[in-house]
Write a structure and sequence with these properties.
The protein has one helix at 2-18; strands at residues 21-24, 30-32, 36-43, 50-63, 77-82, 87-90, 93-103, 111-123, 127-140. By secondary structure, the chain is mainly β. The longest helix has 17 residues, at 2-18. The chain is globular and about 45 Å long. The termini are far apart. It holds the Pfam family Nis1.
Amino acid sequence: MRNSLLVLASFVAAVAAQGVKIVAPAVNTTLTLGETFVIDVERPDSLTGSQEVAIVIGIQSCGQSCDNINTAGDIGRPLYSGLYTPTIVGNGRADLAQNFTVQLPDNIQTGAAVLAVAHFALIIGTEPFLEVVNQVVEIQP
């Protein structure tokens, strides 16, 4: 039993080390319809071997509140779909990052919106890993 818990804890730690985060735009950033902007997706470097496969970045309008939006099942309108090939950020940090320049559609509802990143990787070469991270932004005309 104890060995099983250690293996489980090791796996959870390995998976957590592969997770991405949206660094830019910051939470509650105001974006303008039709605007081109940069999305910075980072993940920590890890001793656990992993192979990045792909990400999909989407945006979904929520009107006044995004509290009931579940991006795990619907990331909204895709803004980018393709390879995720982060490089070392440097500056005393060991994080890996990749920037994506995308254009906000000019026909999306204004107000609160969820910017979502679906990230797919293989851990230790064979274990599929899929996560969806998101944050709220504001869209103005």
